[in-house]
Amino acid sequence: MSHLFGHNGAPNTGYSQPNSIQTASKPTIPKGLVRKNAARWPRLSEPEMVRHYTWLSKRNFGIDTGFYPLGSCTMKHNPRVNEVIAQLPGIADIHPHQPEHHLQGFLSIYFEMQHMLEVCAGMDQVTLQPVAGAQGEFTAVRCIQEYFRLRGESQRNKVIVPDSAHGTNPASAAMAGFEIVEIPSREDGRIDLEALRAVADETTAAMMITNPNTLGLFEADISEASNIVHAAGGQMYYDGANFNAILGITSPGLMGFDAVHFNLHKTFSQPHGGGGPGSGPIGVKAHLAEFLPGPLAARRTPSPEETPLAVDKYWYHWTEPEHSIGKVQQWHGNAGAVIRCWAYYRRYGSGLKTMSEHAVLNANYLRHAIHKTAQEAGVSHLFNDGATTDVAKHEFTLSMLPAKEQLGISAMDVAKGLLDRGYMAPTVYFPLVVPECMMIEPTETESKDTLDTFAHHFAEVLKVDAETLHAAPVTTPVRRVDEVYAARNLCLRHPYDE
Amino acid sequence: MVDQLPNLGRETEMLNAMGLDSMEDLFSDIPEGVRFRGDLPLPPPQSEEEILSDARRLLGSNVAMGSRTSFLGAGLYRNYVPASVFQLVTRGEFLTAYTPYQPEVSQGMLQAMWEFQTLISELVGLPIANLSLYDGSTAAAEALTCAVRVHNRKASQPNTVYVSSLTPPDKMSVMQNYCQGAEIIIKTLEHNADGTLNLDSLKAAAGSCGVYLEQPNPIGVLDEGLVTTKELIGEHTALIVGVQPVSLGMVEAPGHYGADIVVGEGQPLGSPVTGGGPLYGIFACSKPYLRLMPGRIVGRSIDVDGKEAYCLTLSTREQHIRRHRATSNICTNETLIALMGAMHMALLGPDGLHDLAYRNAAACQKAKEVLGETSGVRIVHDTHHFNEFAIEVTGSAKDCLAYLDANGIIGGFDLAKWYPEVTNQILVTTTDQTTLGEIEALSAQLSMWSTHKEVNA
């Protein structure tokens, strides 16, 4: 083990600081505010620090390490030039309060990204301000709330979500002050139009839904669902978590949605960084545009004085929507993430459809390969499809219920067995509507060979006896972690007194 | 495009293996009525070299602060971030990982975040820290809703919080958005002419759920009065203090003078300004707030062999378990930027942090001395500052900043954008990057501006 707080030897610090200005003037802190005891931080030299974090990195699994079929998370390859671009001083060293004539290139990229997302989603106006998918959801339902307030329809205080929805949907709507109405999915995992009809009324503000849904199925009745909600006077909200499946194939606009959020860190490959940063822009139809958080990037013809500073034939500037809900982040959102995603989108441009086609091709191929390989290995009786369908979209679900009932092998056991074979485990126990669920999303950046080999290993895991699998993983830096112990013996920081 | 898709050219082989004929078959479940036909009206795909070239051209046209003399801060600060931080944080095992749902293969990030929690906890003087919120503004907003969850039952002013009237409107707007859903009323606290908090106005906050103040405050003032605020508001009102984390190398940790929650913009430790994001929001609190706090938190545990191991804990507060009853909707946070913060803090150590704070403050002190003697310039608050302070200039701040800009200096922040009634004040910020020469250049240009204004008056 390498412990950061085990280092207390280096007499100085990990980087030497110049002392030019220190000698020039002596700062004064009010007497009552002088810090008495310094933070008990470790003392490391640079070589010790570098070795510690390198050691930690080797105990972590990323896409670069291996196949990462984590359903709903779209763990695709992160092109490295995007990191190079994000560190250029023209993005890393700019301040959001700089005047527009300092930021023409930045504003032009913001404008281009707004436009690209509008085109792909069939929406009229995009804001890049929300910094994560959940914040995008919150922002959009706030816009819908203000829209109804201005129309004198404040009684619309309910948001409908299917029971298969991501947890952030109900959490975001509740945070904005809405009451949540959950409707059950049909037996086959799709939206139940009758259940929707039964709840959609004059108190409905919006329905939040993702399509393809969390089972990886396309909701063929989506237009009818939109009609039902609209007929009741409500708004349709598209959770863009699964947007990777449909670029250039269909769009939320065509399906009748009024608002949508994008997870740029999924669809457009902002590296997820072990939990963030993300970026969660939203797009809306024209009737909601005046409520968006500002400012938005806009463009016009430059004046003669502006022309020499322009990056193309336009002058880019900020505008404030008329009835803006205000801000959800203090600045312009996660600009660094937006720039990376701009670089990613530029790689595909008009060919973004090919990206989605390959995401769906890979998911269906893997689904097929898993079933076929399991059949050959004689283990196909140990799991079922999470939902019946001829074709899945970008992801699919399996239910390990038969393995659980027949052998006592749970979805979590299979997940841990896959860790031992060098894979990140699929998402387990989500969506809740599939018992012993494994949710698998390969993304478009995995080769056929990787998918074949994974299918082979999946069948291999199912051949392992229950006892061995309960003990998995054994090859990882630590074995099964006791989460109950962690919750009962809370240790949330280094205890110096130990 | 071609370099990102390993199965380009293998489509037929893969489709045939599934018994399908064409890509179109994969989309047979999508009704024709919602199909998009034709090509997306976007430019053609580019190669890596073309993208890089466009990025260099477009981003190169921006004015990077480092290419000028810059005194712009106002919430985001340019401190030097050591090279090793960038080298390590782009290691693929950190960069390309998801949230650590499988702890056995995520020990590196989990331990790093547990260490981050410890570093922040020590920095602010409170026992608990989460592993980051989005930024300083959302951390402040979530602190207010957290305070209401904790104190509402006993509050004589339920659903009410008090916030400093100096709080920048953009931050206030975030707070309002986060608070309105829970029907929380935000009232404001007034300040004295010298920029310090009016302690009489604070009395009104007793019995409310929480009070939000900043140290140093938004106009850079170090306010000694804050050490008495907890006493004035009482134990059933949360004292929430927003900090500039670098200042805590010299300035007392708010946890040591009664703060219940400390929040702040973590950026000055570990991250470049990056156009205002990604950043990381600091959130730390005392024990009574633990189970109602927002965000993810790592706990130290053991594995089945009894070996030290780390995992996410207290998830029952979170959206993926509690859904609409969660303490926050946050899922993705700012882990990687927090990791950069942890690396920077680890390199600094306690002495390095003090030195970094000292450099910021010494530059500020020097700037105050020099600008205090510059003709046509007045230091607005004759008190203690950490790394920024307001000056009054001749004419409007807007015109003055435009003049400085024309002369190659980003002179600071026009306070009229925060406080519309103040049209002639600039917030001047210094950091560890500020040199004596730059301060002198600012002084010389401000002096010329004053002369220019007087001549033209």
Structural account:
The complex is a heterodimer of chains A (498) and B (457). Chain A contains 18 helices and 13 strands. Chain A is α/β, with parallel strands linked by helices. In chain A, a hairpin with an 8-residue loop joins strand 12 and strand 13. In chain A, helix 4 crosses helix 12, helix 5 packs across helix 6 and helix 13 runs parallel beside helix 16. The model of chain B has no long low-confidence stretch (mean pLDDT 96). With 457 residues, chain B is of the alpha/beta class. Chain B contains 13 helices and 15 strands. Chain B has 2 domains: 116 residues, Aspartate Aminotransferase, domain 1 (Alpha-Beta Complex); 264 residues, 3-Layer(aba) Sandwich (Aspartate Aminotransferase, domain 2), CATH 3.40.640.10. In chain B, helix 3 runs antiparallel to helix 11. Chain B starts with 10 loop residues before the first helix and ends with a helix. Chain B is globular. In chain B, the strands form 4 sheets. A 7-stranded mixed sheet of chain B has the order 2-8-7-6-5-3-4, sandwiched between helices. Chain B has a 4-stranded antiparallel sheet with strand order 11-12-15-14, covered by helices on one side.
